[in-house]
Write a structure and sequence with these properties.
Layout (H helix, E strand, L loop, with lengths): L9 E6 L2 E6 L5 E3 L13 H43 L9 H5 L1 H23 L2 E12 L4 E12 L12 H18 L4 H32 L1 H28 L1 H4 L3 H53 L1 H18 L12 H7 L6 H23 L1 H4 L5 E6 L6 H11 L10 H11 E19 L5 E19 L6 H4 L2 H13 L11 H7 L15 H10 L12 E2 L3 E2 L1 H11 L10 H7 L1 E3 L9 E5 L7 E9 L2 E5 L3 E5 L3 H6 E6 L4
Parallel strand pairs: 6-8
Antiparallel strand pairs: 1-2, 2-3, 4-5, 7-8, 9-10, 11-16, 12-13, 12-16, 13-14, 14-15
């Protein structure tokens, strides 16, 4: 019998891939349009699971890095606390025989002594090393000072770092390239994919273990300082408990009072005891540092000065005469606190009085911080792995040593030691250099070749996350920092030391400030015809009082010295020709009436842009005619505005609203 077959029923319909013809009897579908089918870009469940796992691993790595940084900060703080505890005087209490015999106090006396013994042992366990120091002494027989060498025992701070392997970066790059190649073909074989993912997990596990080892090594090296800090806290508590019990013993009324009164009394005793410890520490520091450094140096300096004057009286008289002439030439300069004082006293108030070894050690310590920062930037990809691309926007790492030493000397009123300025060095470094990292995530696509169930190859665009690490380093300029961290009195001291370079031009001969401040400032003879204008005459008379003053960022009066806009604002206001108050360079431009170069006249202001990284007007000076200006450069002096530098930054002339 012949088999009966149903007639095919064909329908046509539109889909997102174009027109199709469907056989309802057989279920076959045929594309009948020329439109290409859309590519499936959605991730499969396996791909989504893999992406989720990768995201989880990245989150875990980020959490681990954050925990490691937190632990490292805690260890660093423990070193600071332990070092401070080692330098403090002994907290051992003194007990009478009657107190020791009292059964009520005996237990607390034992606790106090045991805690103090543990503190002394912890202090002694902090590793130390001997360093060679120089000491200035006065030879009575020879009648002059001389330098002696001696060894001094100082703490041996832990570096907390393992030795860097120079092959780590090439190995990391090779491994990254190998993983990328395997990832391109791992979809073709389940075994290869599983092995590759296992290898990646193993490498991450090893990196995790390596980080743990580094943290453990650093934690172990800081143990003596951590023990000293803990022992000091325990000793403080034991001593405070004894003092509280003694107060109860001596005052029966307190013992019979309510619990709240006893609690408040105990807290009061703790505060008083802590205050006594701080006072004892301050007294010890003042006795050891001030008496040894300031008094001895003053004594030696006085002896050397006296003997020098005795044997070179004619030379000294000549120098004093020249100094008097210079003072007369500068006229009103004596109003500035940085020029206050005369003779030997004036020299002392403007001189670095610290030992050369301490000043050079402070400069070396700051340079070491900069070297560590440069090392991190040079090896940033190895130290911060896990990103597909790194983009850098970096300022130069540099500072002037005279700026650093002047800041430290101003903070410590003339004399400092390297141990006293460790905290200031770190603070200044963090304010000068601002390192930021931001991460961008871009969704990109890569082409992968896959095979369908019939053995045909086809290409697929697969999305993936592309991580870009943006690293920016801003050098705020160390000379810009003082105005933000100093009061007016300290800023005035800083200006004094910068104006004279501490009377130590030989300390850092390579500094650019040596040529600026050891050479006389540029002068200019203003034509008498220009001085016939009373407004300009009053303005320039006030301005010339400050020729030779150093440039101090943010300075706005003679006590602190000036920056460019502070100088012009002060001169305009103090001369009585225009009360501007304190304005910046852009503010001075905003209140001025623009003037063409052909119509510019003495007394107008001249504005510049791009002299440093800031929007708008960046520098201002007082135009005096003849192609010259008086401005706060470095130091305050006359300058030729027709040089290539000033012409390349010239913006406009402006006339202030004179009274």
């Amino acid at each position: 019998m012949r088999e009966l077959k149903a007639t095919d029923k064909i329908t046509q319909k539109m889909t997102r891939d174009g027109a199709v013809s469907e056989n309802l009897a057989t279920g076959e579908v045929e594309h009948i349009s020329s439109r290409e089918p859309e590519t499936e870009l959605s991730s499969s469940s396996e791909e989504s699971a893999g992406a989720a796992a990768d995201l989880a691993l990245r989150a875990a790595e980020h959490h681990e890095k954050k925990s490691a940084r937190k632990a490292e900060k805690a260890d660093t703080q423990a070193v600071r606390d332990g070092s401070a505890a080692r330098q403090r005087p002994s907290s051992r209490l003194q007990f009478t025989e009657e107190e020791r015999a009292d059964p009520m106090l005996g237990k607390y006396i034992d606790r106090s002594e045991r805690a103090t013994d543990r503190l002394d042992a912890a202090k002694a366990a902090i590793p130390t090393k001997k360093v060679l120091r120089t000491e200035r002494v006065f030879d009575e027989a020879a009648g002059k000072g001389k330098t002696q060498l001696h060894f001094e025992e100082v703490e041996k701070r832990p570096n907390g770092r393992l030795r860097h392997n120079p092959l780590s970066r090439p190995v990391h790059e090779i491994a990254h390239a190998a993983h990328a190649k395997v990832h391109e073909v791992e979809q073709e074989n389940v075994g290869v994919e599983a092995g590759h993912k296992g290898e990646v997990l193993t490498e991450r596990g090893l990196a995790y273990g390596k980080g743990k080892v580094r943290a453990a090594v650093h934690h172990h090296r800081t143990k003596p300082w951590r023990d000293a800090a803990k022992a000091e806290q325990a000793s403080f508590k034991a001593n405070a408990d004894y003092l509280y019990q003694k107060a109860l013993h001596d005052d029966p009324a307190l013992a019979a009072s309510n619990p709240v009164s006893r609690f408040l009394q105990k807290q009061r005793i703790k505060r008083n005891y802590a205050k006594e410890l701080r006072q004892a520490e301050k007294t010890a520091k003042n006795t050891a540092a001030t008496a040894k450094s300031a008094a001895q140096k003053a004594k030696d300096a006085f002896k050397e000065t006296f003997l020098y004057i005795k044997h070179h009286s004619r030379t000294v008289l000549l120098v004093i005469g020249i100094g008097a002439c210079v003072a007369l030439l500068f006229g009103g300069v004596s109003s500035c606190s940085m020029m206050a004082g005369s003779g030997v006293g004036g020299v002392f108030t403007s001189s670095y009085l610290s030992e050369d070894a301490d000043m050079l050690a402070a400069e070396a310590a700051y340079c070491e911080l900069e070297q560590k920062l440069q090392y991190e930037l040079d090896h940033y990809e190895a130290l911060h792995p896990g990103y597909d691309e790194y983009r850098f926007d970096l300022d130069e790492i540099e500072h002037d040593p005279y700026v650093l030493i002047s800041i430290l000397t101003a903070f410590h009123e003339g004399v400092f030691t390297i141990d006293e300025v460790q905290a200031e060095l770190q603070m200044l470094f963090e304010k000068q250099y601002i390192l930021t990292q931001t991460v961008e995530v871009e969704v990109r696509y890569r082409t992968e070749t896959r095979t369908d169930s019939e053995g045909n190859d086809y290409d697929v665009e697969v999305p993936y996350n592309y991580y870009i690490c943006n690293v920016k380093l801003e050098n705020f300029d160390l000379s810009h920092v003082p105005v933000y961290i100093m009061d007016e009195e300290t800023l005035s001291l800083y200006a004094v030391y910068m104006a004279t370079l501490g009377n130590r031009e030989d300390l850092f001969p390579g500094s650019g400030y040596v040529d600026k401040y050891t050479k006389p400032p540029t002068t200019y003879d203003i034509p008498p015809s220009a001085l016939e204008d009373e407004t300009f005459a009053a303005l320039i008379t006030e301005a010339e009082k400050y020729i030779g003053y150093p440039y101090v960022w943010g300075g706005s009066n003679p006590n602190t010295s000036f920056d460019c806009s502070g100088f012009v604002s002060w001169v305009l206001t103090q001369s009585g020709v225009c009360n501007t108050g304190r304005l910046g360079a852009q503010g001075l431009y905003n209140i001025s009436t623009p003037v063409s170069s052909a119509n510019a006249r003495p007394g107008d202001l001249i504005f510049f842009v791009g002299t440093y990284d800031t929007p708008g007007v960046s520098h201002v000076g007082i135009y005096v005619g003849g192609g010259k200006m008086l401005h706060c450069g470095d130091p305050i002096q006359y300058a030729d505005i027709n040089t290539s530098y000033w012409q390349s930054h010239f913006y406009a002339f402006g006339r202030p609203p004179y009274n």
